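Amidohydrolase
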Amino acid sequence: MEPIQLAERRTRKRQRVQTPVIDCDIHNAFPSNETLYKYLPARWRRHHETIGLRGHYGGHYPRAMKNAARHDAWPPNGLPPGSDLAFMRAQLLDAWDLEYGILNPLLGAGGQLNLEFGAALARATNEWQLAEWVEPEPRLRASIVVPYEDSALAAQEIERWGGHPGFVQVLLIARTAEPLGRRKYWPIYEAAVRHDLPIGIHFGGAGGGPITGAGFPSHYIEDHAGMPQAFQAQVISLVCEGVFERFPTLKIVLIEGGFAWLPPLAWRLDQSWRRLKEEVPYLRRAPSEYIHEHFWITTQPMEEPPKGRFFRQLLEQLNADDRLMFATDYPHWDFDAPDRAFPVELPPALKRKIMAENARALYKLPPRHL
């Protein structure tokens, strides 16, 4: 029997969706090192020219998918995918009539072993985002890139940009040096809460350890499909270390980590908490309650079970109608188009929430299409 979800998808005609669309995961890139150098102080420009970047090994994309990009995302002028605003505007913002797009540059600033250099890269990246993306294109908003392994420097960067309307969240990466619930990261959350900015945790990073609990895998596919392991570890850590008791208004966005794994993780945590809560007496509620209250999730990559009814059951179990937000992951190879992202048709009200309204509420984005 043909899987139901494939049958449903084949009957749909390709067209712009009839609801507003806010894309919560767009990746912008430097056209060249010269672009970066315009925003780096001379001391760190010399460092980049003579030493270069130095982070943990891992997280690299295979050559077969250079820059992890769609084949048609390379601009005709030869610049890297995601680096040409005019091309991105035509291929993504205009083509799909996006109301807003959230920029998440994955340029390695937070993963630098030289933390001061990482802080300089983060600041240069943020200045570049504002000058060359957000100010020229009113549909774009940016994430604040921070040197997350030094929370004092990261908090300084949040303070620098936290009041600017062009920045709508703080960007971390799923694979950090330690679980994100640890106190060393708390100054980041304190600064984010002070500016009422959500923390976005995006797919990727290396952090110095293997992605699995059983050592380093052999293949890119294992890293790509296995990234939810890192997200699960971060959710468990943030809940069990008491981060949400210390910061009751903190909002976390899980970006490009999938979401099918979240309901069973919450169930398992609740079961463990009922038996072991003496170990974590500061947790006053079941873990699932913290998860439901503090976490938002983006849609890409979409889990696609073999039958459409399984996907509808998944949404019901996720219980996140107000927390699930649409994302394309442009310009990367596993891009989700707005008209094909979901394997089944959704009720119109729910579709509107996921495609735009949940992100509009979280990021405080005023309506552009009246």
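thats it. The CA atoms of residues 305 and 311 lie 6 Å apart. Residues 115-134 form the longest helix (20 residues). bye
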